[in-house]
Amino acid sequence: MRWLDFVRPGDWAVAAAGAGLVAVSFPLAFQAGVAEKAVVKRGGEVFAELDLGRDRRIDVPGPLGTTTIAVERRRVRVVADPGPRQYCVRQGWLERPGEIAICAPNQVSVQIKGNREAYDSLSY
């Protein structure tokens, strides 16, 4: 006997309802609203809060040198960093609330903030 012979119409209904609930709730669980600003930190302290509606570049001094951050078209990225591996530069454009680029050797980070708090595995 095949396993499908044991599945009844009510089983299919419960499976479909469960799949529908997961499909509807998954996007809602990770929403943080609209990206409004970028928070730049240096050494764990807030260095600047950048409005994403205004294009600009800022230089952030750190222990290794200067990190350059750019805001363009409601997104932000690390353009240049004196760190050896350039992970934060390779992170690319940050657009959604909760995204972050960390330049650990130079103690600089930039994070997108939205109109609601973003939750991730660390804050959960």
TrEMBL record:
Pfam families: NusG_II (PF07009). The keyword Membrane applies. Keywords: Membrane, Transmembrane, Transmembrane helix. InterPro entries: NusG_2_sf. The keyword Membrane applies. The chain crosses the membrane at residues 12-34. This is NusG domain II-containing protein.
